[in-house]
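Human: You know discrete backbone vocabularies at least as well as I do. Show me how you would write down a chain together with its backbone fold. No explanation is needed for now; the record alone will do.

Assistant:
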Amino acid sequence: MDGLAREILDLTLEHLWLVLISMMVASVVGIAGGILLTRRPQWRGWVLGFANIMQTVPSLALFGFLIPVPLIGGIGKHTAILALVLYALLPILRNTLAGILGVDRAVRESAIAMGMTERQLLLEVELPLASRTILAGVRVATVTTIGTATIAAAIGGGGLGVFIFRGLASVDTTLILAGAVPAAVIALLADGGLGWIERKFSAV
């Protein structure tokens, strides 16, 4: 039992690392992309279309599709992280775009009338007012990524999915629960924690 407990801890930390790295990359790309789309409306259709397509591809299939891709594919964590980033992009990208576009036009015009530059307008007006909507997107993406990351084990990405796939192969419910329960707990904690941060932003 001590050996199993130790392995659960190791794989939980590995799972958290996968999610953390993936969400950091997805947040940077998604928020930056969302900001860019507010300035380049002609790009919105194909960028959002690509992100939507990534969401509709079954997760296991996407992991498999990426394996033979030169340079970015293969077996291991880097391919798993790339797949998780692609899955997490849509809610962050869409919420960033919606949050910034949802800023009251009168507020934006008042800021411009005060002499604010485009950069100041973005950093001091638009992003603070859109922060709750952006955080909601990050929250949804994080919870989804925690669950999807269990499939990373199928391509050698590690994480709690190792227990799930091992349990399925041996028809061992204990092993399946050893992977599924910690993943569910992490998802609940992440959802609660990010929800608390989201409420704090809305109260400011």
In short: The mean pLDDT is 91. The CA atoms of residues 101 and 156 lie 40 Å apart. The chain has eight helices and no strands.
